[in-house]
Amino acid sequence: MPLVEVKVIKGVFTSEEKSEMIRRITETMVDIEGENLRQVTTVIVEEVQSGDWGIGGNALTTADVHALQGRATASVLAG
């Protein structure tokens, strides 16, 4: 029974995008392990508070991720 946990920074993805993640990840697992496991495949999208995620010793915020997506200007990653 596959369990896939995805952690993202809160406020980065919309409800629709998270639903799409769940759908696509489930499809990927079914492609790998077979259709019989679809009904027991669990995907959990967990949101981590902005600033509680670190990369290279720097806190990563929602604004930083939006900047990486081309939505705004990064503060932490630019420095």
The ordered H/E elements are EHEEEH
- Count of domains: 2
What is the SS-derived class?
alpha+beta
Q: What name goes with the CATH superfamily of the largest domain?
A: Macrophage Migration Inhibitory Factor
Helix percent band: 25-40%
Radius of gyration: 15 Å
Query: Mean pLDDT score, rounded?
Result: 90
Describe the model.
Helix content is 33%, strand content 25%. The model has no long low-confidence stretch (mean pLDDT 90). The chain has two domains: 1-48, 2-Layer Sandwich (Macrophage Migration Inhibitory Factor); 49-79, no CATH class. The chain has two helices and four strands; from the N terminus they run βαβββα. The chain has helices at 15-33, 62-68; strands spanning 3-9, 42-48, 53-55, 58-60. It is α+β, with helices and mostly antiparallel strands and 79 residues long. It is elongated and about 40 Å long. It starts with a strand and ends in an 11-residue tail after the last helix. Helix 1 (15-33) links the parallel strand 1 (3-9) and strand 2 (42-48).
Task: Describe the SSE topology.
Layout: E1 3-9, H1 15-33, E2 42-48, E3 53-55, E4 58-60, H2 62-68
Parallel strand pairs: 1-2
Antiparallel strand pairs: 3-4
Précis, in short:
The protein is α+β, with helices and mostly antiparallel strands and 79 residues long. The protein has 2 helices and 4 strands.
